[in-house]
Known about the structure:
The protein has helices at 8-35, 42-72, 78-101. With 110 residues, it is mainly α. The protein has one domain (10-101). The relative contact order is 0.15.
Amino acid sequence: MSSSSITLPRILANLVAIIAVILGSAFVLDVIWAWFGQPPFALCGLLPIVDLVLGRTIGTIFIYAGLIAWGFSLFQNASYLLLALSGVVLSGIPGMITAALGVSCSMPLP
């Protein structure tokens, strides 16, 4: 019997997997669409939404929650600092995935 407890690494891994599946699916859709001679649209259209919702919003929540909790623990508990650092990493995932896939569209600057 295994217990399925909800832990921070499991939540972060699931969020990163969701981002990767959404952007990877859009990339595959663009490749299939390009086979028919049409210009790709899915990834460049979906990237600002994924970046804003999953990247910046959830990343910012993780950063602030981690830093506040780390401060309340009197800077003793390193897991809260890891939560803040994971928010920094999570906020950069959409840009890193598209750069790795070689997308030519540019992300809108804030």
